[in-house]
Structures are given as structure tokens and as C-alpha cells.
Design goal:
8 strands, about 250 residues, alpha/beta, Arc Repressor Mutant, subunit A, DNA Methylphosphotriester Repair Domain
């Protein structure tokens, strides 16, 4: 994220302007939690802050939701079933959840999961997995061995952990300490959808989704850049999307 944007977000956090709810989230390095823009907790210094445009980005970076401002809720409330699900994960973020766990807490698994998906745009299973893998990524980036990070998130299978990690981050756990986060977006055009990928300074990939060999090109990019590709906001992608729209309008 550009320094100027980060500073704008930081000032907005200090001002606690309600207009910024849902616009960004702030991860606090010293506590390991992430918060809403208007969290009433004591404000950290700028150097302790990491800003995200979506909760999932913060989860994958290893942060856990603040219990005070409930950043997974927008506005600051959510159905009881969803609140219970979030609480379940945060009480034991490395646990594997089964249907019996829902029943023991008085929840109908399918109904609760459907409400969770409608609320956050990702399933409960995706959320729980993102929390586990976010913790694992954080452990690896902090210098832990891969095997220690795997046991930290309760993966008994080395291959299962490697496959799950690679599926989410696009790289093996061994390369996690070198990870670079880049942004991806589908762009709709009159000629068909396009896949765009960019870092904070450059456009890295722009191709039509039905192009032959796109999947291979995507994998080569991930390996070359040692990048974690996440669907998230990015000012380079905003620029390119606007240029494409303007081109077709002409």
C-alpha cells in the first residue's frame, strides 16, 4: 500500500470518522489484532499499523479480529448465529470444525453457514481455514520452521498442509518467508472478462480469461514474483480498469 494512502487511513483512524467503516481495516502488529476504522481502543503508533481493504486480507496476514469493535461486522452488529461462529473460531483458531460442534452450541450447521456466507462473502469453512493459514504464514514469516508452523495449526499431514498452503497463497510453505502480496481482479469488458494482477507500482498481468495458456502464465507469475495473489483493492488496478472502460466508451 502506498505510504500516502496508509497515512490517510491512519488519520481517519485517529478521527474515528464513521464514513470509513468498511473502507479499510487496521492490523496492529504489537497485539496481532485487526480493527474497524473507528475502533474505540487506544490508538497505536503509525509504525505499528498495517492497513487492509478487506477482512480476509487481515486474516491471511495472521491477524485476529478485535473483540471490542468486531471488525467482521458491518455495521457493528450481526446475527447471533454468525457471532457465535466467529466466537468459536477466535476461542480456538486452529481447530477443525465438524457438524457436531455446531449442534453442541445450539446451531444448525447449514443455516449458520449460509448466514455467514451472506454476511462476509466467504463460507465459515473458508474463514476458519484462512485463520489457520494466516497463523501459519505469520509463524513462517517470523522465522519459524515449516514443520513448527504446521504443528501450530494442527496439521498432522505434511502433504495436506503443503497443499492447503499452496492453494491459498500460491506457493509452498518453504517460500512463505519470502512472500510478496499482489492484487488480482476480474475486469468485465464488452469482449469478455479479463484477469488483471498488479503490485503497488506495476501491472504484472492483463489477459482475457479464455486465453489459451492463461493458467500456466498465472502460475509462472506467482513463482517468478514469489507472490501471494489475493483479490483485493489496488490503485494500479483501479487505473487500468478506468482506462479500459474509457477505451470501450470511445
Amino acid at each position: 500500500m502506498e505510504l500516502s494512502i496508509a497515512k490517510t487511513y491512519y488519520q481517519a483512524m485517529l478521527d474515528r470518522g464513521p464514513a470509513y467503516i468498511g473502507t479499510f481495516y487496521v492490523g496492529v502488529r504489537s497485539t496481532g489484532v485487526f480493527c474497524h476504522a473507528i475502533c474505540p481502543a487506544r490508538k497505536p503508533g503509525f509504525e505499528q499499523c498495517e492497513f487492509f481493504t478487506k477482512p480476509e486480507e487481515a486474516l491471511l496476514a495472521g491477524y485476529r479480529p478485535c473483540k471490542r469493535c468486531l471488525p467482521l461486522s458491518h455495521p457493528l452488529n450481526m446475527p447471533d448465529a454468525v457471532l457465535k461462529l466467529v466466537g468459536m473460531v477466535e476461542a480456538d483458531p486452529t481447530r477443525y470444525w465438524r457438524e457436531a460442534d455446531f449442534k453442541s452450541r445450539g446451531l444448525a450447521a447449514k443455516t449458520a453457514s449460509r448466514q455467514f456466507l451472506r454476511r462476509f462473502g466467504m463460507s465459515f469453512v473458508q474463514y476458519a481455514r484462512a485463520r489457520r493459514m494466516g497463523i501459519a504464514m505469520q509463524e513462517i514469516r517470523n522465522g519459524s520452521r515449516v514443520i513448527d508452523a504446521r504443528w501450530e495449526v494442527r496439521y498432522t499431514s505434511a502433504s495436506g498442509f503443503r497443499d492447503g498452503f499452496s492453494q491459498i497463497f500460491g506457493m509452498s510453505p518453504a517460500n512463505g518467508s519470502e512472500a510478496l502480496y499482489v492484487s488480482a481482479r476480474w475486469l468485465e469488458t464488452p469482449l469478455g472478462p479479463m484477469l488483471a494482477i498488479a503490485d503497488e507500482t506495476d501491472l504484472l498481468l492483463l489477459e482475457f480469461s479464455d486465453r489459451s495458456g492463461l493458467e500456466r502464465e498465472f502460475e509462472i507469475l506467482r513463482r517468478q514474483e514469489k507472490a501471494v495473489v489475493l483479490p483485493r483493492d489496488n490503485h494500479i488496478l483501479d487505473q487500468k480498469e478506468n482506462l479500459i472502460k474509457a477505451y470501450f466508451i470511445k
